[in-house]
Write a structure and sequence with these properties.
Chain B: Pfam families: PP-binding. The complex is a heterotrimer of chains A (328), B (83) and C (401). Chain A is α/β, with parallel strands linked by helices and 328 residues long. Chain A has twelve helices and 14 strands. Chains in contact: A-C, B-C.
């Protein structure tokens, strides 16, 4: 085990891309402003100089076109990383993602895999308003044929990309915008991680807080607050929204008998609804309280800072939901 | 202390009476298959084996159950093993 | 205040004779306690209480015969043990003055006693409900400290510990042998079976099931155990049936008033032949949740109580399906008559060696003929076939049962 180093989420994503480019000549990065500008969240700064225009490719403002090019490249044997600036823009590429990337393996009778990775920024908190701030990963988690990853920790930001590139099928990685500046320590030789299991980030016996992505840190903070009241909350980081690791969720709920789902996405028909339904199906007899949900309010994300914050799950709301599930 | 044939026969008949309290034991032909004579089913027979094992301390492996299907056969089997 | 009624212990029971009271005024009873013995066509049956409380009065005397639905006893306001009863329960009427003797012909008998729910349904979490059943805790006496006053699992655990600390070991009722009138039982069987054949459009299916794996597994398992821990193959049949019913719930339940009602659990009526003629199929409850050793113990206990007397009322009223298993004797196949209002009956014939084709060559294997008699108003042959196939498949992996 090597020395831990100080780093950031942004740096972890960048080093993951660098490592992949070095290890595999078939890997290249493509997207709007990824080259000369260095990425709208500065993830790819410096990579153009290191790898050249062949492998760090700026694209026109046409998500449908360059995502389609990514699919073609993947079918042709390359390992493209397509970056879409924010999940709201990915809707321009829905036809390519859902009608092509997700279906070709099935429609070709298993003949054509699409080993494509698409990275997108997701989530609110930077006052970018209703066309740049939504959490739509739950939508993609609805689609068979896709894998949907939501790295929340430095370790996952560093390690999920390579495993995703090794996967023979399309993988979508959602990076929450409020995580890029998050700093911490990581082993200098941190490497690939699994993209199949949820992780228990904090153990507890009284209530399971189930979350992912940007909401993880609010949830951990809520668990600290609950601990001050003598409530031991378990925090489960889903990590992968499709396929969902139901076993870990059910095992946690079976231990604590109570579940609160925290999802920055909207409540109706979202990830939180799916998780609550699976708990009903597989852990009903373990429950001591109805499943609680803390979700983004059902409005387009507002621009004004105070309204934006009011529309998002917050620590106080998570604490209150956990208390309700305990009857306190 | 070794058991006599009479002690074993008494034990078999008494335990049979316990297992099948609703069966008519008077006039039972000791050489007749208990399943036919008394309508002893597999649960009754297993209970009889359990009772005899406990009372006499004699091991009766499952594969030997068919050797204890009449009173006479059961007495002979248990006597041979009681030594 | 709750009334205890003469229960209906079968589709064709019209009246019952109270043979023996096991309670007296002033006694506390809890849900499930045996309170009386009633002579029926099926012999002497122990009647269990539905409600908890203190016995206010006995309304009929030993030896009296009354129609189904007649009030036979009254329970008064619960004592301190049930102080946590719903606050909104209707206040009890003043303690009963001596009630009119019910010797006069009782009003029109009602079909079956229903436990009168007092006030709105209590909030009890699913986990608490299951735990209460496992620990044998009466939820009526448990204080709820969960969300909105709901009883949660920790409340049940606390109640169980309190009870265990407070109560001395329950005294066991000595086993009593009670008379069984075979003629009366024959009449009851005649009535039920005639109704079944009159009302239920039966269909029948059968399939032969290879038991090599099950027999081998059982022999190995039993070889290393003392006789009292050995299993009978019929236990495997019961468990496989119960597990298969999880996916085939349409065979587990009752057909009443023109509609199928799924069973509240898998309560398998297990047919036990009675010496001298007669048959009874009392329920083993929640068979799908019992492991094989527990199931064997229940079956052994059931057979013993059929032989000696001492069946419980709930065992007669609760079966959601019947299984008849011939074991090592008898004929190869049996096609049952469904016990109304159930909708299916499974028959396991005699386990016997048969020559079967195996990988293109003849082989001698232990097999059983498995049959299904089912109600065509609820299911049809295709589903029946899938159900039998599932049972057969489960029997191929006995270690998973």
């Amino acid at each position: 085990m090597s020395q831990p180093v100080e780093t950031t989420y942004r740096e972890c994503v960048k080093q993951a891309i660098r490592e992949a480019m070095i290890r595999d000549q078939r890997v290249f990065l493509m997207g709007e402003d990824v080259g000369h500008y260095g990425g709208c969240y500065a993830v790819s700064k410096g990579l153009l100089a290191e790898f050249g225009e062949e492998r760090i490719r700026d694209t026109p403002l046409s998500e449908n076109a360059f995502t389609g090019i990514g699919i073609g490249a993947a079918l042709g044997g390359l390992r493209p990383i397509v970056e879409i600036m924010t999940v709201n823009f990915s809707f321009l590429a829905l036809d390519q993602i859902i009608n092509n990337a997700a279906t070709l393996l099935h429609m070709s009778g298993g003949a054509f895999n699409v080993p494509l990775v698409i990275r997108m920024a997701t989530g609110a908190g930077r006052q970018l308003a209703a066309q740049h701030s939504h959490s739509m990963e739950g939508w993609y988690a609805h689609i068979p044929g896709l894998k949907v990853l939501t790295p929340a920790t430095l370790e996952d930001a560093r390690g999920m990309l390579w495993t995703a590139l090794e996967d023979p099928d399309p993988v979508l990685i959602f990076e929450h915008v409020m995580l890029y500046n998050r700093s911490g320590t990581l082993a200098a030789d941190a490497g690939p991680v699994d993209i199949a299991k949820a992780a228990v980030r904090r153990e507890g016996s009284d209530v399971s807080l189930l979350t992912y992505g940007g909401a993880l840190y609010k949830t951990l903070e809520a668990a600290d607050k609950l601990a001050e009241e003598g409530i031991a909350a378990e925090v489960v980081d889903l990590r992968v929204l499709r396929p969902l690791d139901t076993a870990t969720i059910v095992a946690s709920v079976a231990r604590t008998r109570r579940a609160v789902v925290i999802d920055e996405g909207w409540r109706s028909g979202g990830v939180s609804a799916e998780i609550a339904a699976r708990i009903m199906e597989q852990a009903f007899w373990e429950l001591d309280a109805p499943v609680e949900r803390v979700c983004g309010l059902e409005v387009p994300i507002p621009y004004a800072a105070h309204l934006e914050q009011a529309a998002l799950p917050q620590v106080e709301g998570i604490v209150a939901a956990a208390r309700r599930s305990l009857g306190r | 202390m070794s058991l006599t044939e009479q002690q074993i026969r008494t034990a078999v008949l008494e335990e049979l009476g316990n297992v099948a309290p609703d069966a008519e034991l008077d006039g039972l032909d000791p050489s007749e298959d208990l399943r036919d004579a008394l309508d002893i089913d597999s649960m009754d027979h297993l209970n009889l084996m359990i009772a005899l094992h406990k009372r006499l301390g004699i091991e009766i492996p499952e594969r030997d159950y068919p050797k204890l299907l009449t009173v006479d056969a059961a007495v002979a089997y248990l006597l041979a093993r009681a030594g | 205040m709750a009334d205890i009624l003469m229960p209906s212990l079968g589709a064709d029971m019209e009246s019952g004779r109270l043979a023996e009271w096991l309670i007296k005024p002033g006694d506390s009873v809890a849900h499930g306690d045996v309170i009386a013995v009633v002579e029926t066509q099926k012999g002497a049956i122990e009647i269990e209480a539905f409600d908890s409380g203190r016995v206010a009065s006995l309304e009929i005397a030993e030896g009296e015969e009354v129609p189904v639905g007649t009030v036979i006893a009254r329970l008064g306001a619960p004592g301190e043990a049930t102080a946590a009863a719903p606050a909104s329960a209707p206040s009890a009427p003043p303690p009963a003055a001596p009630a009119p003797a019910p010797s006069a012909p009782a009003p029109t008998p009602v079909a079956a006693p229903s436990p009168a729910p007092a006030g709105p349904r209590r909030r009890v979490s699913p986990a608490a409900r299951r735990l209460a059943e496992t620990l044998g805790v009466d939820l009526a006496g448990v204080e709820g400290r969960g969300p909105q006053g709901a009883v949660v699992s920790s409340d049940v655990r606390r109640a169980a510990e309190t009870t265990r600390a407070a109560a001395p070991a329950a005294t066991q009722q000595p086993a009593r042998r009670r008379g069984l009138d075979l003629e009366e039982m024959r009449k009851a069987i005649a009535a039920a079976m005639a109704r079944s054949k009159r009302e239920i459009p039966h269909y029948y299916l059968a399939t032969r099931v290879d038991l090599q794996a099950a027999s081998d597994w059982l022999a190995r398992r039993n070889a290393e155990r003392p006789p009292e821990a050995r299993l009978l193959i019929s236990v495997l049949f019961l468990k496989a049936t119960a597990l298969a019913l999880r996916d085939h719930g349409a065979f587990n339940g009752t057909y009443e008033e023109g509609a199928f009602r799924p069973g509240s659990g898998v309560h398998v009526g297990s047919a036990v032949a009675i010496r001298g003629g007669g048959l009874i199929a009392p329920a083993i409850h929640e068979v799908d949740h019992l492991d094989l050793d527990a199931l064997m113990a229940k079956l052994r206990d059931l057979v013993e109580r059929v032989r000696r007397g001492g069946l419980r009322s709930s065992e007669l009223t609760d079966p959601t399906i019947t299984v008849s298993s011939l074991g090592e004797r008898g004929v190869e196949s049996l096609f049952g008559v469904i016990y109304p209002p159930q909708v299916a009956l499974l028959g396991f014939g005699r386990v016997s060696d048969q020559v079967v084709a195996l990988d293109g060559a003849p082989a001698v294997r232990p097999t059983v003929e498995l049959s299904l008699a089912a109600d065509h108003r609820v299911t049809d042959g295709h589903r029946g076939g899938l159900f039998l196939r599932r049972i057969a498949d489960l029997l191929q992996e006995p270690e998973q049962l």
